[in-house]
Amino acid sequence: MRTRPVLVFDGDCGFCTSSVRLIERVVRPRCEAVPWQRADLAALGVPPERARHEALWVTPTGKAYGGAQAVARLLLSAGGAWAIAGALLTLPPVRWAAHAVYRLVANNRRHLPGGPAGCALPADRARRT
């Protein structure tokens, strides 16, 4: 059984990988960060479709939090002022706003620095301009 939470992220996305590395240095969450492409998703109890859709925080007991709530759990794990920010992200209406911002960033990460073609949405989900 795992004793530490696991942060699962998209290791093919430069923006995601850079963000996780920055968070590891600055926030210092108490977790193991692993790209979903190298994670044992079955052992974590996470469907691959979900791991492709959002960052995940998987507790040692197997509870998975996704997207903005994964970020909230990450911040809570770091303690101090970070934990206060994490706690705020769990409360409505901040929680709702955090979800909207997370989806906005996730859906547009291909336009952000470090966002390679692998971050692009499938053609059937990409917004037509």
UniProtKB/TrEMBL annotation:
Record-linked Pfam families: DCC1-like
Superkingdom: Bacteria
InterPro entries, per database record: DCC1-like (IPR007263)
Protein name in UniProt: DUF393 domain-containing protein
Organism (species): Streptomyces prasinosporus
